[in-house]
Hints:
mainly alpha; Methane Monooxygenase Hydroxylase, Chain G, domain 1
Amino acid sequence: MIPWGGMLSKKHQMQLAHRLSRIRGQIEGIRKMVEGPRYCVEILNQIAAVRAALSSVGRLILEDHLKTCVKGAIKRGQGEREIKELMDVFEKF
């Protein structure tokens, strides 16, 4: 269920979809590196790059969520619920 209709804007959906497609390509590249004769440090560097890219996607989604869902909930006097939900998500990171 999406509370209060909070969803990513079309603009952000497109940007994030593009970034995730690039990450998918990076992961495929890592798979090929593992299958081929590649130096372990090169593979680890690519894994670090994918982690950084995923973190960037997460930050963009978090920013969007804060600016829309959390901000709106606070204006409606329901901020505590949104903040708790967000803190639960942070526990997973």
